[in-house]
Amino acid sequence: MSLDLRHSLIDRVRLFSLLDGISYVILLGIAMPLKYFADMPLAVRIVGSLHGGIFLLLCLFLFLALIQKKLTFTWCVIVFVCALVPFAPFFLDKKLSERND
Questions:
Q1: Residue 73's Cα: distance from chain center in Å?
Q2: Whole-structure pTM over 0.85, yes or no?
Q3: Residue 21: which domain range?
Q4: Does a structural domain hold residue 2?
Q5: Contact (Cβ atoms closer than 8 angstroms) between residue 10 and residue 100
Q6: 36-71 pLDDT, tens digit each
Q7: CA–CA–CA angle 65, 93, 55 (5° rounding)
């Protein structure tokens, strides 16, 4: 997996989609159990804030890709919905890399 972050807007979408997927899995798999089973709500506050920031950046790059016609509206909706489903961004990355060629 190679990403050209300087020139490719789709690669930026791919990067933030993957980062969003990773932060979401950490939030659900590590931070939430720490909050409810180990009485450590700070874990959710920290990871949740990071995840929220990454998600907002993903939405920004999706919007830019839509405006610059790098991705269609349908593709933007697919990426957005995949960001809401754990592990979906990892499967989506291959399809997005094909769109970048």
A1: 17
A2: yes
A3: 9-100
A4: no
A5: yes
A6: 999 999 999 999 999 999 999 999 999 999 999 989
A7: 60
